[in-house]
């Protein structure tokens, strides 16, 4: 039988429309390693949040297995209906349309995501910022569509007053939101990870303790495969126009997310503009960090932390990962190729 190896293709787009993603998104690799109890692994896959998802679990109840796909589909619909900026009637779209100062009660899931997002914004000094959406759109990486020419300095300056995570005001218990200004909230750098966590919760509530869940390359693994081994994950090398594996890791009981700047960009006069926008400068990142993979207790945190680290750059990102108590692999561009930076514990996950 085939041993499953999930490939982490770095998040190369910050928006959710399926039409833009179907041709290039995340693949599964099958590595033949001899016969195992593969028949005990049950799977379900489909499309959500403008990308693909895959759920695999070690079966213990055939009847429960039959019920799970419908439950998985409905859970993902509910999250999309809450957090999508592409659905005109989603909870988040309605919030973005509210006038500043209008209080609104949040659904429990949206309240939890916003609370965690603001925590990471604080710890990263704003490198992660859910209000950066207007700049992402201006640079052609949001719902307004692609551009081939960089925006003017005047256009960028005009949007700066709308940016700032401190303009998202939550009540003390996190259940109510007030926008302090004309802000636009975009959760695309944390919502997929949160969706992974919710799917993991669904599986665990069904009595499943060994699984691998993936949405758009963000993953969460728990327990062991039927052969007693950890789940294997392939991390993609940040090479433009190619699909190569940089590293393979073996994991359990962890959330995994990757971010990179080498697939979603545009060029003008020989200058490449990344889709990752630095909220502080209102410009695409220009440092040498090509990609980052983060291992964290939950996938929502891994998702947001990976984005924050891409903004911070190599040295600051490494220090930030250590401060946050997570493991990370940073791949940095050099004149002759790439070099790797690993936090102290990341090497423990490597498959040699």
TrEMBL record:
Cofactor note: Magnesium. Can also use manganese.
Cellular location(s): Cell inner membrane
EC category: transferase
Predominant location: membrane
Co-factor(s): Mg(2+); Mn(2+)
Membrane topology: Lipid-anchor
GO MF annotations in UniProt: metal ion binding; transferase activity
Keywords from the UniProt entry: Cell inner membrane, Cell membrane, FAD, Flavoprotein, Lipoprotein, Magnesium, Membrane, Metal-binding, Palmitate, Signal, Transferase
A GO-annotated cellular component: plasma membrane
Catalytic activity: L-threonyl-[protein] + FAD = FMN-L-threonyl-[protein] + AMP + H(+)
InterPro entries from the UniProt entry: ApbE (IPR024932), ApbE-like_sf (IPR003374)
Cited PANTHER family: FAD:PROTEIN FMN TRANSFERASE, THIAMINE BIOSYNTHESIS LIPOPROTEIN APBE
Family per record: Belongs to the ApbE family.
Protein name, per record: FAD:protein FMN transferase
């Amino acid at each position: 039988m085939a041993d499953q190896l999930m490939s982490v293709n770095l998040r190369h787009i910050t928006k959710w429309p399926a039409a833009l993603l179907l041709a290039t998104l995340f693949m599964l690799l099958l590595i033949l390693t001899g016969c195992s109890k593969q028949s005990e692994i049950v799977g379900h896959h489909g499309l959500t949040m403008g990308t693909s998802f895959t759920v695999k679990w070690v079966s213990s109840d055939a009847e429960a297995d039959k019920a799970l796909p419908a439950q998985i589909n409905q859970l993902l619909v509910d999250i999309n209906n809450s957090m999508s900026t592409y659905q005109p009637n989603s909870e988040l779209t309605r919030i973005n349309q509210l006038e500043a100062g209008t209080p609104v009660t949040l659904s429990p899931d949206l309240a939890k995501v916003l609370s965690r997002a603001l925590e990471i914004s604080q710890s990263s000094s704003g490198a992660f910022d859910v209000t950066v959406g207007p700049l992402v759109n201006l640079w052609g990486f949001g719902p307004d569509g692609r551009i081939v020419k960089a925006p003017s300095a005047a256009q960028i300056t005009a949007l700066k007053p709308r940016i700032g995570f401190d303009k998202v005001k939550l009540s003390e218990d996190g259940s109510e939101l007030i926008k302090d200004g004309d802000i636009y909230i975009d959760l695309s750098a944390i919502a997929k990870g949160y969706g992974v966590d919710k799917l993991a919760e669904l599986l665990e509530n069904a009595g499943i303790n060994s699984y691998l869940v993936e949405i758009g390359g963000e993953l969460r693994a728990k327990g062991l495969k039927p052969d007693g081994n950890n789940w294997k994950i392939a991390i993609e090398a940040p090479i433009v126009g190619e699909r190569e594996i940089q590293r393979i890791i073996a994991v359990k009981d962890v959330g995994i997310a990757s971010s990179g700047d080498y697939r979603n960009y545009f060029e003008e006069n020989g200058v490449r503009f990344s889709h990752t926008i630095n909220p502080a400068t209102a410009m695409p990142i220009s440092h040498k960090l090509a990609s980052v993979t983060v291992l964290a207790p939950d996938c929502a945190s891994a998702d947001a932390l990976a984005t924050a680290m891409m903004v911070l750059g190599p040295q600051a990102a490494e220090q930030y990962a250590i401060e946050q108590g997570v493991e990370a692999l940073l791949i940095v561009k050099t004149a002759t190729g790439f070099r790797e930076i690993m936090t102290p514990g990341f090497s423990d996950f490597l498959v040699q």
